[in-house]
């Protein structure tokens, strides 16, 4: 335990307070933590595939040798401050960590957190050791802002408040804009705004919250465009008893219908596409705040009252099950809305005397007071798995203490986007400690993710983390005082602490691993309650589970947040460029834990590398298959497996959990209803779902069927009509045959290791007229299908079907083989057909038509990232300038670079797939086919909680 003793005066001469007596965890007295790490120099060169166009270049950067190339690239491009090529640019991880930790340590000393200067030094050294060894990470705003000339913004999550006044609504627009500009996200509940079924004081009818959502969505979209690579992240919540709830529920589903129609018409409707801005409500996640009263009405099939916003009177009654079905149907169609369980959230609220919890941040893990914020940090759980398979409990407790102390210190010096948010955060000091790599930890210890044993381990770790966090918070309260709002909320706060402790007492362990963790968690909660009774608590909130997108990659985590492994195989970037497909390194560790000998482990790993799953792996017992189940693939974890894992950990978290429950494309509306209902029964605070391909897989034929059904009904009602004879003149197209001699281009291509050839022939007066495709051996089924496809396309072109029509229909078509290509302009293809028509568009369509279809060359994408007009790249002068641009100035210590990183040509190469029998990672990842391409580097992104993260450069689709 951390001791407290009388120490330095705090806050500029105020009365002396006790200071923390820090103890070392990983460091050695008299030895700087950097001196215990092997460092090496690397080159970070981010290019547009193989065309030589450099997006980013910084040579001679310094990182620990243990860090992957991917982690070093992400930190260099995302977190190093200073203009590239100037002496002010950071070039070493040491500089980055010194910049951040230096501010934390100085603030801790100034605010009286430490008993002596020696304790401050221990704090400084332990933080630096933990960060450079990837034991934990602060959230991204800390790395962006702390220690720079920018405002010291440390929070990634914000909750705003909107009242039923125009001034408040306009303030909401402004406050969201300030938050988005800083790269963070916010959430808001619009339920105080009068519905469109209520009257204004002037006698007119109110617009309703959905109408005001349009303005906020347009504002967010504009700021997204200004931010170039990161879309605005926001959450919009509406209470289930709001009279406009049905309109809110169906809002995004209706817009999704528009997206499909416009995409089929040839418009660029992908994430970041230029035509997506014509569709509304695309910059927010929507959630319905449901009450226990409503959920009980759903169970019983009763009617439920919708209430006026000002008077609270029931103005309309609806069928609860019908409304619940509409929620599930909309989520089935477009993944929105999610649900937030209002009574559960507020039953675990530590500060109800200050106000109810009405909203959340964009990913739903931060739930607390309006006009507040939360800074996050996540622990890399795999760092605490010891060689003997046990969990390093004592060091886990110590690192939790250290992180909570650092996070609380950050509130002392932090800046906030609005004064209201600053006041609330300083008064309640909400923190969000969490973890990553749970899925990898469970697999490495031989636990299936969807099993009682896996859930017991996860619950015990979560309970230990939160118990240690609040125990440390009580110790901090003795040193620097409880949070300002504690006095008025003391009884409620202590009641919630007892609820956490009671949940811990009810936890049932199954083996030695979770048994030992649970025993320590029980000790932590006992001490927490005792200290809290005496000292109060420093923080109104301590823990939650965030998606850990970019920082998960920074820590080289195999899995993010509470998520299971995404797939059993992945790509690993190599020093100097290139990549190789590898089996996740957790798998050999798991097989060893399960008792398999070395030769058998090698055979199983080789099988997984080839097939991407474990079914029928040589020598692997079927009862062990479940240990290797993933979110996607041959043995995907069932949707309720995700819900049960969330339920196992939720009682031990102050906040909620950022996680999306994945459902297969074949899932029904009833399946989603069941997930939402079980989430309520199991005590979750929030829940979101995603049905595979729901964003693009719901065809317009559904509406066509409805139209046909209506027509049939009308015909039956009116009786058979008399036959009518009409003479219709049909204008038939004529075929324009190709001449015997015509210019042609042959392209050799590779998609996920599958090779092919395409010959495209043109009319002499320009215009594509013929396409021939060759894949596989002559006489094979594939060769025959491709020949037939080529003939069909060629005849269509000769009969006048525009090439852009084919492109609009065939790009984004998904089937295997899919993945990396060897084309510098088309880095990823969702199928061979997708590649072919992207290539034809680039070769034969003018820029304006391609831009409308969302097909750009590498040079054009690079120009977009620089904020230039992509059409300008067609100037030979611009292209020449790009080709001859000077390299970035290197640090003076460049000569120390390791030989393997100094190879000139190799260092210029970019990540590529090494063909081989392993096949494509994409072919094993199911839902990732729906993931967007990264707008920074073009790599396919992967799910991370409710968002997506790019493993190539660390960019996210909205979450820090």
Automatic annotation (TrEMBL):
Residues 44-134 form the Ribonucleotide reductase class II vitamin B12-dependent N-terminal domain. Residues 700-723, 886-925 are annotated as: Disordered. Residues 886-911 have a biased composition (Low complexity). GO terms for biological process: DNA biosynthetic process. Its cofactor is adenosylcob(III)alamin. Keywords: Cobalamin, Cobalt, Disulfide bond, DNA synthesis, Nucleotide-binding, Oxidoreductase. InterPro entries: RdRp_reductase_class-2, RNR_2_N, RNR_lg_C, RNR_NrdJ/NrdZ, TSCPD_dom. The keyword Disulfide bond applies. Residues 705-719 have a biased composition (Basic and acidic residues). Residues 155-690 form the Ribonucleotide reductase large subunit C-terminal domain. Belongs to the ribonucleoside diphosphate reductase class-2 family. Catalyzes the reduction of ribonucleotides to deoxyribonucleotides. May function to provide a pool of deoxyribonucleotide precursors for DNA repair during oxygen limitation and/or for immediate growth after restoration of oxygen. NCBIfam families: NrdJ_Z, PRK06556.1. This is Vitamin B12-dependent ribonucleotide reductase. It comes from Planomonospora parontospora. The gene is nrdJ.
């Amino acid at each position: 335990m951390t001791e407290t003793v009388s120490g330095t005066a705090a806050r500029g001469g105020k009365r002396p307070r006790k200071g923390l007596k820090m103890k070392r965890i990983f460091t050695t007295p008299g030895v700087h933590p950097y001196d215990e790490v092997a460092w090496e120099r690397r080159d970070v060169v981010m290019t547009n595939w193989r065309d030589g166009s450099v997006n980013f270049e910084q040579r001679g950067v310094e990182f620990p040798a243990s860090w992957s190339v991917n982690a070093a690239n992400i930190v260099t491009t995302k977190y190093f401050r200073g203009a590239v090529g100037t002496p002010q640019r950071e070039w070493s991880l040491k500089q980055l960590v010194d910049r951040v930790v230096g501010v934390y340590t100085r603030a801790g000393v100034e605010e009286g957190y430490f008993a002596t200067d020696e304790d401050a030094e221990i704090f400084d050294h332990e933080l630096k050791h933990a960060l450079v060894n990837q034991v934990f990470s602060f959230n991204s705003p800390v790395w962006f802002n702390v220690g720079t000339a920018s405002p010291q913004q440390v929070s990634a999550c914000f909750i705003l408040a909107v009242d039923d006044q125009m001034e408040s609504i306009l303030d909401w627009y402004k406050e969201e804009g300030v938050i988005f500009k800083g790269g963070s996200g916010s959430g808001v509940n619009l339920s105080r705004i009068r519905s469109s079924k209520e009257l204004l004081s002037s006698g007119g009818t109110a617009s309703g919250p959905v109408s005001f959502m349009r303005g906020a969505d347009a504002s967010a979209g504009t700021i997204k465009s200004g931010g170039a690579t990161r879309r605005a992240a926001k959450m919009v919540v509406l209470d289930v008893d709001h009279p406009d709830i049905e309109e809110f529920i169906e809002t995004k589903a209706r817009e999704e219908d528009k997206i499909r129609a416009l995409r089929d018409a040839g418009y660029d409707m992908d994430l970041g596409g230029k035509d997506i801005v014509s569709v509304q409500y695309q910059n927010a996640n929507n959630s319905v705040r449901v009450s226990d009263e409503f959920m009980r009405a759903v169970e019983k099939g009763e009617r439920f009252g919708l209430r006026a916003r000002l008077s609270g009177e029931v103005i309309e009654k609806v069928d609860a099950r019908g409304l619940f079905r509409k929620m599930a149907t909309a989520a089935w169609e477009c993944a929105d809305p999610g649900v937030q369980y209002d009574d559960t959230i507020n039953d675990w609220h530590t500060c109800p005397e200050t106000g109810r919890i009405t909203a959340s941040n964009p990913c739903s893990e931060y739930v607390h007071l309006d006009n507040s914020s939360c800074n996050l940090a996540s622990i890399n759980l795999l760092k605490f798995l010891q060689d003997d398979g046990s969990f390093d409990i004592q060091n886990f407790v110590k690192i939790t203490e250290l992180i909570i102390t650092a996070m609380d210190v950050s509130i002392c010096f932090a800046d906030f986007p609005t004064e209201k948010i600053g006041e609330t955060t300083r008064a309640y000091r909400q923190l969000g400690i969490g973890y990553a790599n749970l899925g990898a930890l469970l697999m490495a210890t031989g636990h299936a993710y969807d099993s009682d044993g896996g859930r017991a381990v996860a619950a015990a770790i979560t309970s230990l983390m939160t118990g240690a966090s609040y125990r440390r918070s009580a110790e901090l309260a003795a040193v620097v005082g409880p949070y300002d709002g504690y006095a008025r909320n003391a009884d409620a706060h202590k009641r919630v602490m007892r609820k956490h402790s009671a949940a811990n007492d009810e936890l049932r362990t199954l083996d030695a691993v979770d048994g030992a963790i649970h025993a320590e968690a029980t000790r932590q909660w006992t001490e927490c309650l005792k200290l809290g009774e005496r000292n109060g608590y420093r923080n109104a909130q301590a823990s939650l589970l965030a998606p850990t997108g970019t920082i998960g990659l920074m820590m080289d985590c195999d899995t993010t947040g509470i998520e299971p492994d995404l797939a059993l195989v992945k790509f690993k970037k190599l020093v100097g460029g290139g990549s190789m497909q590898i089996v996740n390194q957790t798998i050999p560790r798991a097989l060893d834990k399960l008792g398999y000998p070395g030769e058998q482990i090698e055979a199983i790993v080789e099988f997984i590398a080839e097939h991407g799953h474990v079914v029928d792996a040589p020598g692997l017992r079927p009862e062990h298959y479940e240990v290797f189940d993933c979110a996607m693939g041959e043995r995907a974890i069932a949707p309720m497996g995700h819900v049960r894992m969330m339920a196992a950990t939720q009682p031990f978290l102050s906040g909620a959990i950022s996680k999306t429950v994945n459902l297969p494309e074949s899932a029904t509306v009833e399946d989603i209803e069941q997930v939402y209902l079980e989430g309520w029964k199991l005590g979750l605070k929030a829940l979101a779902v995603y049905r595979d391909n729901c964003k693009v897989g719901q065809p317009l034929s559904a509406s066509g069927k409805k139209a046909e059904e209506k027509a049939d009904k009308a015909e039956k009602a009116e009786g058979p009509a008399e036959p009518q004879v009409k003479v219709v003149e049909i204008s038939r197209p004529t075929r324009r045959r190709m001449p015997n001699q015509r210019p042609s281009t042959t392209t050799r291509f590779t998609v996920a290791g599958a090779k092919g050839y395409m010959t495209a022939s043109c009319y002499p007066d320009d215009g594509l007229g013929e396409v021939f495709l060759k894949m596989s051996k002559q006489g094979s089924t594939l060769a025959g299908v491709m020949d037939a496809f080529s003939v069909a396309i060629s005849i269509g072109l000769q009969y006048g079907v525009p090439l852009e029509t084919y492109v609009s229909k065939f790009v984004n078509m998904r089937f295997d083989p899919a993945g990396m290509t060897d084309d510098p302009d088309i880095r990823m293809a969702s199928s061979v057909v997708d590649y072919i028509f992207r290539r034809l568009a680039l070769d034969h369509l003018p820029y304006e038509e391609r831009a409308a279809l969302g097909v750009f060359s590498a040079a054009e994408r690079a120009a977009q990232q620089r904020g230039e007009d992509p059409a300008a790249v067609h100037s030979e002068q611009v292209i020449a300038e790009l080709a001859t641009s000077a390299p970035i100035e290197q640090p003076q210590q460049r000569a120390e670079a390791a030989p393997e990183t100094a190879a000139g040509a190799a260092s210029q190469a970019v990540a590529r797939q090494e063909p081989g029998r392993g096949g494509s990672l994409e072919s094993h990842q199911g839902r990732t086919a729906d993931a967007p391409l990264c707008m920074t580097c073009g790599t396919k992104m992967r799910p991370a909680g409710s968002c997506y993260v790019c493993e190539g450069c660390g960019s996210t689709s909205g979450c820090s």
